[in-house]
Amino acid sequence: MRGFIEKVEKGEHLLYEEMIVASKVMFEEDTEVQHIVDFISVLSKKGETSIEVAALATVMKSFAINLNEPIGEYMDNCGTGGDGLNSFNISTTSAFVLAAAGVTVAKHGNRKISSNAGSSDVLEALGIHTSISPAASIELLKREGLTFLYAPNVHPKLKKIGIARKMIGKPTIFNLAGPLTNPIRLLTQYTGINRSDFTMEYADVLRILGRKRAIVVCGAEGMDEASLAGVNQLVLVDNGDLIPFKLTATDVGLAPAPISAIQGGDSHTNAKILHNVLQGETSPYLDTVLFNSGIGLFASGIVSSIQEGVKLAKDTIHSGKALEKLEAAITFSQQSVRHEVVL
Predict the structure, then answer these.
(1) What domains sit in the chain, N to C, each tagged with a CATH number?
(2) Which of 104, 130, 145, 237 has the largest count of CB atoms under 10 Å?
């Protein structure tokens, strides 16, 4: 590991094969946590490349458990986090809308790291258990076209990495790689990052990893979701082509709103916000979900434009289908936990 650290300290980028080796070393049992801290710290200082992120994501996914999911077209809408803006759980809320609108969603997530409530925190506050077995997660996916994969359950080798990330205390390459390590094979993806200077490189990572179609967004003010607050930077990945574009809320018929209008809180506060959104309560929270769901629907190919996606998202919520999807996930989760306790 020391050789890789010294090379990166000189400002040199690692080749794909070098990053594969370095990533595997990070996951070895006898690798010291401090060496992991040093390595990802110097990578951050140098600036990560698409090759380095893709290599790390490849290794992380290789160590994930095999879920034996049926063949299908699966999508994830997990973002990198780390924007420090304390918004509510936008992608988690949007996942119910996407699934209710016909997208098969395998949502990857974790507990809070840099936010007040991570995806798994708010799901548990809603009554969706992250402790259900991998087999139950796949059964939920088959039944409802939606499942939630709690990162520690599907990435058993991440414990030491988690310690290193907490020691650093700020976003690292693992934030960038995390959304790309879903153990389920994804053909499409909608993901957000908090670095406008890295949207094209991140789209290139998705291309390298074989996504047929995907969208990367960096929201106004660096939000890792599409924001109502201003101009959003996006890149569409379409069968190997990388197409950058910009988008505002008004472009798709939504009202602008400041970041402060979509502030979240703890897991229970965010669960209430999520529930209110799926009930169709008018607010910037709802509009933010419509915006992101619309982009996700366009990324999936279900609609031919983001404007059409926003309309479908609105219809899906107001019809009650998104709320029904939430209720079905809660019921399944609770029945699964009771069944596993009995066994």
Answers:
(1) 2-63 (1.20.970.10), 74-154+173-328 (3.40.1030.10)
(2) 237
